[in-house]
């Protein structure tokens, strides 16, 4: 039961309260006169990752104020006990629904609707047996092919999420006219349109009916906002701005709860359990954040490399949102350390090292030999020692928990990342302009996504020892898709900055050079089509119950594919700049999930 999962963190939370709040030092400006970037003629390779965000790295005083928000040991215990009692109440409700399902046809629909609410509130894993029992394949098939628009689209989504083969054309064909267009009598079916909007983002490629579903539902929901009652209008607006499948479920859960609380018929136990769950997860994330901040300050790299990014909170946000569940707390903490090294190494290549030093640094990583770094600058030696220690610690942890030590595969993943950075350095120093496809292939590697996800795969206990070499050399789509989405989204936002600052290195700019007759808007539309294509391939990987054609020998645990989906979902949030170069949605995410 969930209380046992969270109880193990109670004492840790209290230790966090008693410990001093350690914060990373403020980052020095990259324009400092001491920056070694001047050694390469003052040019800077385009940063490979998220640029600094004031929205989530708000400064020393504001972060310090959050330490007072952690409750006492008594408060935590009361919250855990309340969570346990509410879990029992919801469990009883589900059992009552099961008994009613056995007596009436409408009981099955009620159970499916409850499963949907539990999933939208990110609580279905607490009731896995009841959820599995409610997900009756025959009932879902019946609803998908015989229910109304809401029933059919909800059944379609649940079946596709579960990996069942289900045809969008067959399910939606009943709601279209002879020309294949959705019938106009569905324009006022708001709940049906919302569900239709949900499934329209689950396209696995060449599903024209889902493209039409997106256009039809978006157009009619937009127009309906003007006459809907305020609570429903807000929910529709939020659903259009943050579609269910391509948005972080933890974030959507808060908005779904707010909507449920406005309905005339409510399930109080479920709502109160969701609130308790939100609070416990927030406390857990605060505890994790405190541990990571102490580790980062003790490491001292922020002081030794003052030109490097010092954004520990941002690094944690990536892992906090990608990897969910109290049982994976240690995983989030350790992988945040890996993410931090990706950023720091990127900045070392950007701002610190000469080409010769970076080549020696890369060679030392390939050898995985600390002595090979003796001739390097102090900051490179310190960085290598730190990432060497953390990576070996993770390998030892995996061996203790799963009986296999993956250090050789992790070393190879690090070497691949450094080789990718070195390739970009050679392009810049030689004045070489890669073609757009070559740039994108290398950009997948330098995004850091493959490195982080190789570590995650082993930490989840997945044994890829039989094909690990191929796994690292040929990145599977479940990893390459979010990496490409990240790279392309980043480039859409950075291309304008680079044009202003005289920097180079975005896919969009390279594509324009290869196609001189194109306007900038056409190139941007091409990039957006590429992102949509990567989403379709990621959907195929995540919604298939069997191995994909592109990686037929490898299947992945559900937690891994969920993390890949979450990483892709967060990209648009991390790069969703407004007209003033702010990140308002990300600010909302962090305030809601962490503070």
TrEMBL record:
UniProt-listed Enzyme Commission number(s): 4.2.3.25
Sequence ranges assigned to domain Terpene synthase N-terminal in this UniProt record: 77-240
A single GO cellular-component term on record: chloroplast
Origin superkingdom: Eukaryota
Organism in which the protein naturally occurs: Oryza rufipogon
Subcellular location: Plastid, Chloroplast
Pfam (any one): Terpene_synth
GO molecular function, one term: magnesium ion binding
Spans annotated as Disordered: 27-55
InterPro entries assigned to the protein according to its UniProt record, in alphabetical order: Isoprenoid_synthase_dom_sf, Terpene_cyclase-like_1_C, Terpene_synth_N, Terpene_synth_N_sf, Terpene_synthase-like, Terpene_synthase_metal-bd, Terpenoid_cyclase/PrenylTrfase
Transcription regulation is among the record's keywords: no
EC class name: lyase
GO annotation, biological process: defense response to bacterium; monoterpene biosynthetic process; terpenoid biosynthetic process
Lineage of the organism: Eukaryota, Viridiplantae, Streptophyta, Embryophyta, Tracheophyta
Biased composition (Low complexity): 27-40
Keyword terms of this UniProt record: Chloroplast, Lyase, Magnesium, Metal-binding, Plant defense, Plastid, Signal, Transit peptide
Record-linked PANTHER family: OS04G0344100 PROTEIN-RELATED, S-(+)-LINALOOL SYNTHASE, CHLOROPLASTIC
Known pathway: Secondary metabolite biosynthesis; terpenoid biosynthesis
Cofactor(s) listed in the protein's UniProt record: Mg(2+)
Signal peptide start and end residues: 1-28
Record domain Terpene synthase metal-binding: where: 298-537
Listed name of the protein: S-linalool synthase
